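Dear H.,

Thanks for agreeing to be a second pair of eyes. The structure we're designing against is below in token form, covering all 273 positions.
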């Protein structure tokens, strides 16, 4: 059943991305409403995909790259929906939808079979760690999209050619403020993810920290976002500098996530094979 809803999700995200693209070219509000409606329907189907996969696997569906990409894309869209409800930034969906589509398409190309988790790794720390990590990363993803929007809007203002996306993107002040709020939510969650991951590692292997590649890159990512948060709090980093640094940190986060998981053959190398 999860496979059926997965394919429905891909189709709806593809449709939403296409309609969002049409909106960015035409600026017709009716298209934005249609795109959002399709995107919400895709999120509902995505939720069912995750729910059925969780039931079928009997564990948190995040122990191989197919599951991790599927779950991460769901969490990113879920965080966007929260931002949408609280701040009403519908145009942000035009940036989130293609990213979610890319993740689920990538997931569709990977092995989908359910692989049992090694008994030594079975722990309630698994869902705790995964939820903390994915939601923290999702907030960083939204901060990245807001940073991209900021750089686009600033380009229009500096060039004094007020056309194209300038008329549909929010103000620089709002984009910078929302990006900072996402950082404030994402950094504590990342910190808790590292802590709970260490506790889980001690439970599974008897060691809190083994300096494995994923642990090292998690620490590198933590330092990058710590530097960004410190810069905003003490050095007055705002606007373009913060947006660029956020992009660099997110690139490191995504790069390590994809490359390391591919190299290890599963999320953190935790598949039961």
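And this is the sequence the design step returned. I haven't edited it by hand at all.
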């Amino acid at each position: 059943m999860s496979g059926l809803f997965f394919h429905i999700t891909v189709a709806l995200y593809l449709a939403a991305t296409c309609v969002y693209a049409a909106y960015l070219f035409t600026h017709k509000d009716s298209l934005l409403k249609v795109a959002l409606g399709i995107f919400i329907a895709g999120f509902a189907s995505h939720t069912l995909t995750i729910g059925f996969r969780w039931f079928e696997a009997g564990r948190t569906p995040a122990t191989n790259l197919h599951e991790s990409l599927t779950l991460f894309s769901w969490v990113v869209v879920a965080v966007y929906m929260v931002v949408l409800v609280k701040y009403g930034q519908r145009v942000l969906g035009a940036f989130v939808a293609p990213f979610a589509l890319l993740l689920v398409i990538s997931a569709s190309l990977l092995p989908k079979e359910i692989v049992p988790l090694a008994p030594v790794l079975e722990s309630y720390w698994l869902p705790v760690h995964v939820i903390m990590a994915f939601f923290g990363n999702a907030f960083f993803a939204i901060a990245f999209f807001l940073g991209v929007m900021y750089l686009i809007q600033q380009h229009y203002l500096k060039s004094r050619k007020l056309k194209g996306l300038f008329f549909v993107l929010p103000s620089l002040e709002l984009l910078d403020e929302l990006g900072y709020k996402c950082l404030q939510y994402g950094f504590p969650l990342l910190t808790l993810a590292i802590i709970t991951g260490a506790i889980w590692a001690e439970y599974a292997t008897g060691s809190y920290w083994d300096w494995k590649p994923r642990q090292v890159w998690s620490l590198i990512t933590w330092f990058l976002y710590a530097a960004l948060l410190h810069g905003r709090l003490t050095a007055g980093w705002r606007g373009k500098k913060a947006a660029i640094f956020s992009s660099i940190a997110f690139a490191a986060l995504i790069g390590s996530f994809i490359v390391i998981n591919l190299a290890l053959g599963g999320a953190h190398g935790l598949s039961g094979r």
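Two observations from my side: Residues 177 and 269 are 37 Å apart (CA to CA). Confidence is low (pLDDT under 50) at residues 269-273.

Warmly,
E.
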